[in-house]
Amino acid sequence: METLGKAKRVRIYVSEDDRADGKPLHLAILELLRRESAQGATVLKGVEGFGATGRIHVSSLVDVAWRLPLVIEWVDRPEQVERLAPRLRALVRHGLITVDDTDVLLFEPHPVRDLTTTAIVADVMSRDVVTVARSTPVREVVELTLGKTYRAVPVVEGGRPVGIVTSSDLVHRGGLGVRLDLLATLDRPALQELLERLTQQRRTAAEVMTPDPVTVRSSASLPAAAERMARRRLKRLPVVDEAGSLVGIVSRVDLLRTVGVGFGKKEPIARELGLAGDVPLSRVMRRDVPAIHPESPLPEVFQAVTSTRLNRALVLDDERRPVGLVTDAELLERVTPALRPGAIRAIMQRLPFRHARGEESVAAHTRGGTAADVMSRHVATAREHALLSEAIASMLQGDDKVLAVTDADGRVVGIVDRADLLHGLTGPAAQEA
To answer: Domain CBS spans what residues (predicted)?
Structure first.
């Protein structure tokens, strides 16, 4: 049986009369999960049962019906479960929480958030923000990101954001040498060596951070946040309250989720929110597509992948139809430890990838010698006349970073990433529609 991937299933056993923050506990848990962009949760009411007290609760008139046992079941990505588990434990004072590995057979989420036309940043931001102090060692900052979805850590002082440490900061000023999203491709010895080097350098967050980060008020409109993020080409913004204290963080994906169209919905809600989701994809796509042929040799593949900020290249057949996708992370995973330092250097410095002994040595130290050998066969596509809202929904459903834009015959005519889509919602192309 083919599955989509692995996930974690969380079951929380509580009683119907348990409360938290002045409301029923199960409702407080649901609100937390929804606020933090969990994939979804279901509350199941028991017919009868007993817990640690040994008292049997039943649904008949003999006992009190409102003390029935409840089970909240939540299935999500492992990193999301790990992130929110401490907050769940803080809510559940009496009860039981279990976590199991599970296989996902089908997952067709609705990528659009249910928002009103007066929605503000506070309605879509994440409130569970990992922060550090000025004095936090750079190694600790890096370790906070390992295995996590976030790639930037705010630096706070007195509750206010005074800086932010991004992947770029760590590479250029922190001595990391490799982007945070590529750390997962390193084997344990290489990763440990990198962390030890950071320890020896003794740098702190204050020395590598971007000071005075761009922020947005929690009461700001979504178009204002989107415009600020698109104009400065930022992936996320720290969110502050009226006093300037950090209260959350809003990402590019958070904003894109507000305008996607899913499950056959025809009328985009973007205009009602002040964003232009009814712009054709052809207006915002880039036509300089990083592309290679399935038979392209590995050095040529490296060159195509590193030639653009997308850090990936489409694999096209003789008729320019997409047959695969190659990312820099996939390239690193397919080279042996002997070639990995050179491969990382080529990727980070956007240099040609060569080996002192020539291309034959490169082929000998890789699992495959052509684009067809190293590519992923999953390519997310969208037609050039599709609306931005439809393209956004397609990208979010597959958790893709880019979309290949095709004509009516399925030939690639352009490409877009998340930054292009967000810019299209707020830029001149959107305003002309």
So the answer is: 125-182, 209-267, 285-344, 375-432
**95 and 134 fall within a common domain:** no
- Residue 378 tokens read as 């999953």
In a domain, 316, yes or no: no
- String of DSSP letters for 364-382: HTBS-SBHHHH-BS---EE
Whether 264 is covered by a domain: the verdict is: no
Using DSSP's 3-state secondary structure scheme, residue 263 falls into coil
- Could you list the residue range(s) of the whole structural domain that residue 60 is in? 5-104
148 in Cβ contact with 79 (< 8 Å): yes
Q: Within a domain: residue 357?
A: no
Q: Phi and psi at residue 70, in whole multiples of 5°? A: -125, 150
CATH of the domain at 205: 3.10.580.10
pLDDT in tens, 155-177: 999 999 999 999 999 988 988 88
Contact 423, 230 (CB under 8 A): yes
Tell me whether residue 235 is in a domain: yes
What pTM value is reported for the model? 0.68
The amino acid that residue 329 corresponds to is A
Confidence bin at 346 (pLDDT 50/70/90): low
